[in-house]
Amino acid sequence: MHLDVRGVRVLVSVVPEGSESNTTTGGIVLLGANTPNQQEALVEAIGQEVKYLEFGDRILIRKPSGVPVEFGGEKYLLLNETDILAVIKQK
User: Fold this and answer.
1) Scanning 23, 59, 69, 83, which has its CA 20 to 30 A from the CA of 11?
2) Structural domains in the chain plus CATH codes
3) Mean pLDDT of 12-24
4) Which residues pair with 61 in a beta bridge?
5) Integer Cα distance of 85 and 34 in angstroms
6) Helix H or strand E segment including 14
């Protein structure tokens, strides 16, 4: 069983604060990646109208945003594409 996300919505799992993902492979520390206004998340599923994201992308999202969803014993957020602040690119 899986969730079929519709439209311009994105299903994400929130990256826990203090995770090592706040450091890029080049060693740059992304200070404040999880702050009171924003948090890092991992894209788990995307709607068919989302153009610039892929499964597995790491993103910064506004906080608070989205609708909490529990599925298969896991907790997710269902966001509109406009809630996404940036895509975190690793080189």
Assistant:
1) 23
2) 9-88 (2.30.33.40)
3) 71
4) 39, 84
5) 12
6) strand 9-14
